[in-house]
Amino acid sequence: MKSNGILILLASLTLNAAPADLSGTWKVVYAGSRRTAPITVGSILLDLKVDGNVVSGTAHIGPWPGLAPIADGKIEGDRLTFTATGTLSSTTGIPTCKFDVTMHDNEMLVTMTVIKNAGGPLELGRAYKHRGKRRLD
Prior knowledge:
It contains one helix and eight strands.
């Protein structure tokens, strides 16, 4: 009987756990080798708005593909996923990127993958690793 009470308490704590506080502006920079750096996406600014487990806002993905509204943003614990479609076109169209974000202490670890209309220095399906912190300005 005592173990049932502990299980119920743990389940309650898990269900009521608040998502990581991701609201605000984050600057992340490319974390890979300079040889493999995506020329136009050395850094990304994420302006995140959180409402429960739903995330909206914008991603400024370097000078190209540029400003991109966040879609399908959701938080699960210390993980955030969303897509963002740029506003600046190339000969292949306007790229859409998938973002997988993990929080580690006060640092954001970001994997950006182009999932549609890759072009220029961004390869379709390639994962670009970024890392950064919240901007305090």
